[in-house]
Amino acid sequence: MKNFQNEFEVNSNIDRVWEFYTDIKHLEIVSPRDIELKLIKCTDRILKNGTVACFNGRIIIGAQWCSKITFLEKYEYVDEMIQNGNINPPFRVWSHRHKFELIDNNKTRVIDKIRFELPFGFAGKLLEFYFNTKLQKIFEHRVYATKKFLEESDS
User: Which of 46, 65, 49 is nearest to 57 (CA)?
Assistant: First the structure.
């Protein structure tokens, strides 16, 4: 099992950041175009405990998968890939904790902690370094896109 963590600060009120990140449509804004992430279906536009969302895209290879919100309390939630029903999922394990912390009235810390395991046995182990690098690039874009969207719209 591998771990990845990313943290950044955004000049926006925590409630605004929370509202942005719990709207499933935020993924269209923060996802890099090259992963071609498409929302296929979602049980709720605003995330809540038990929300299921299904996607296709190119994370490592082209794939389709579903995730479920397994924990949600104000300013923190966890999405986990559902194994059941996924055909050739991009991960054996995927758990993504999103946490938001108040720094001051108009500044929020965004914390992402991901636990993952790739499929493909030994080959998957070899791909972990590549995927960690890919995750870093995805989150660099996510930071940029989040700040652009929230800081420019708050101005």
Answer: 65
Domain range summary for the chain, segments of one domain joined by +:
2-154
Contacts of the segment 76-84: beta carbons below 8 A, 24+ positions apart: 76/100, 77/22, 77/47, 79/53, 82/52
Residues 116-149 have pLDDT tens digits of 988 767 766 777 888 888 899 999 999 999 999 9
User: Whole-angstrom Cα distance, residue 65 to residue 59?
Assistant: 11
Q: Burial code of 85-112, b = ≥16 C-beta within 10 A, e = fewer?
A: ebeebbbeebbbbbebeeeeeeebebeb
CATH code, residues 2-154: 3.30.530.20
d(C-alpha 46, C-alpha 43), whole Å: 9
Q: What is the pLDDT, as a whole number, of residue 84?
A: 65
Laid out side by side, the sheet with 62-73 consists of 2-10, 107-117, 93-104, 76-81, 62-73, 52-58, 38-42
